[in-house]
Amino acid sequence: MLGGLLLALLVVVGAFFLLRSLVKRDRGNQPAGQAGTNKAGSDPALATTPSPRATAAPSADAQSELLREAPELFRRVQDANNRGDLEELAALSDDGDLLQYFVSSINERNEAPRTKVLAVSVRGNRVLDFVSSAASFTGSIHFKAEIAEGDDPSEVIEEVWHFLKPSGGGTWKLAGIEQL
Predict the structure, then answer these.
(1) pLDDT, tens digit, for every residue of 39-69?
(2) Is residue 42 part of a domain?
(3) Residue 170 falls within a domain, yes or no?
(4) Region for residue 28 given its phi and psi (left: phi exceeds 0; alpha: psi -120 to 50; beta: otherwise)
(5) What are the phi and psi torsion angles at 153 (to 5°)?
(6) What is the CATH number of the domain that holds 98?
(7) pLDDT tens for residues 134-167?
(8) Using CB atoms within 10 A of its CB, is residue 112 exposed (0-12), middle (13-18) or buried (19+)?
């Protein structure tokens, strides 16, 4: 029960900070006075011409890489949380606020969770959403996983995890979680 509540809180916090960071990036990429304006619907040329970033090979490579690595990242985050390994969680998460959530969660619990990941798969075997910018890649993965908490019977969960990666290299890091 407590694990479910903590996970729900993590989802809300992660989604908030992911959306906040995406909005900041969008505003930063628009000319002054144009923040938040979407002209794609008002100009047919803009609506039908794909951006060079959307079709670039690095973007496709990054999507393939995320699709390959996401299930292992899911397992690593669960395992690090079970162990209370803040160093590993810091290495796996993108946002300081998300790490602060992990720190608070670990400090508040009476005993380490014993979450076993019995199976994890990517729904549809595809990246749900993907955004490429000059600075970073952002991708979302819809996971379906069978987990067991301690000695309890296993249950199937579905979550969307959001990941970020610098476009110049580096590793995928967890930016937020949405529980479905």
Answers:
(1) 333 333 333 334 444 445 568 899 999 999 9
(2) no
(3) yes
(4) alpha
(5) -60, 155
(6) 3.10.450
(7) 999 999 999 999 999 988 999 999 999 999 999 8
(8) exposed
